[in-house]
Amino acid sequence: MMVTVREMFDFAIETDGLNLAHRIYWALSENLVQLEDDSEKLDAIHYDESAIYSMVERNVLSIGRIKLFVIQTSNEKWYSFILAENSLDAYRLYADLFREKPRKVTRSDRLMIPTMDIADTGQQTNLYEYRKNVVQFPAYVGHAEANTKVLYRMGVSA
Length: 158
Known about the structure:
Blueprint: H1 5-14, H2 18-29, H3 49-58, E1 67-72, E2 78-84, H4 87-98, E3 104-107, E4 116-118, E5 123-125, H5 127-132, E6 139-145, E7 150-151
Parallel strand pairs: 4-7
Antiparallel strand pairs: 1-2, 1-3, 2-6, 4-5
Helix pairs in contact: 1-2, 2-3
């Protein structure tokens, strides 16, 4: 089964694949591939690494601005998940919503990938998919008990 350049590009953007997305974008902008081409064509291209590096540094595609932050709560077994541009925004939102000082704020993008169960809706999704439906950031996603993959909205309406 052929994977198209479009599918590869969409995947890179959805998963915050900054370098890959910009490499594909550069190849498209130079007309070296088309969106409907087989993605294997990307392997044969001689890339202008300095141009791509510059694009990545400027983040031309605005990828990865929103990150996942996990906050250790006053109950050491529970963690709050917040999508935000930076840790300060995540800290402030948590403090405003729950009227307590976060114990520890950690950037945890690796937790965007596993499928999570959203307890309130019964939905199963990864947080990349969940993020697509969020309109405003920072955004509270939910709480999870340590080493589990079930998110609960604690005292906050959707």
